[in-house]
Write a structure and sequence with these properties.
Strand order of the largest sheet: 5-8-6-7
Radius of gyration: 26 Å
Structural class: alpha/beta
Family: Belongs to the peptidase M14 family.
Order of helices and strands: EEEEEEHEHHEHEEEEEEEEHHEEEEEH
CATH superfamily of the largest domain: Zn peptidases
Domain Peptidase M14: 1-169
Helix content: 10-25%
Protein name: CPD
Number of strands: 21
Largest sheet: 4 strands, mixed
Keywords: Glycoprotein
CATH architecture of the largest domain: 3-Layer(aba) Sandwich
Low-confidence stretches: 1-15, 20-42, 297-310
Active site: 139 (proton donor/acceptor)
Shape: elongated
Length: 349
Amino acid sequence: MLTMLTSTGISQTCTLPELTPYNQRQSWSSSGASLTLLSCQPTSMVVSSLVANYPYDGIHSLRRKRSIYSRSPDDISFRYLAEAFSWGHNTMHKGAPCPSMSTERFHDGITNGAHWYPLNGGMQDWNYFYTNDLELTIEQGCVKYPLTADLKKYWDDNKYAYLTYICQVHKGVAGFVLDDETGSGIPSAKISVRGINHTISAAQAGDYWRILAPGSYDIIASAPGYKSAEHHVTVTDGEAVKLDFRLSSSVLETWSTAKDYSLKLNIETKDILSKDISGALEDIVSSSITAKHLIIPVAEDSEGIDILSYSSLKSQQQQINIALIGGLRANENIGRNVLVRLARHLSQG
């Protein structure tokens, strides 16, 4: 939940997306009006405990009261950020409990949100899903409403931790995604890291920032109408690795986006062999939302024409029937490949 004070002085409460087994990317609204958050503060500072809390807060389960470690794709980098704050704090890294919770201890002064207590619909999970932010929640002390006389001590305890945490924006990988021909930035280009299921977007000028813990990574840049590019980098504990991408335009990618539902498999140059055709067709039927009955004739008839036969029936009665009949010999490369690609296109559309 997020509570905001509007310009009219009215407090509005917004329900943020929850982690559920069925839908991890839910829309959110407030009092019937849709809201768009353009930029977010990357850290929430609160007082009630002494710990750096990192995503996920929510859990992929309907049993929401059970504490369980809820790992995000960027779990290693989140731990790295949380430890940067905790070890910059005068005492947080010791993990000592608050007097009111004598049994509560946090190793190195950090915790996974859901492992501490599950909270579906939290701000730091929302920011991770829908923006480029990696947000932490920092619990700054054991007293929820500290006295004015104690504020200087809070500042002294947290000052270096704040500065250390701010400096983490310069860690990882950063650069530009550029059009190779014009040199112009490619807005909203996608930056992904192999093995980490979380993609970020470049800004309007093609500039991007990707915070990563020290290690070796394969970074991929992509954009509609361009060939993707990939580079291997080694990230250290020092300044961010400067990594620019120059993407060349792709006629096939542009055509695929405009005419073929961006079906990447249809523009791959790898041939579909005879032994692979049944598996390829089964994949099309099982993943399609439109193809109920897919029949592709391909076995040899009495006149010697090669016509191999494939049939698959799905139970959803509202889906359409698709029949493809190839006029090319199935033992020819082009016959197999054209038919399978046409099947993908029809089932997708």
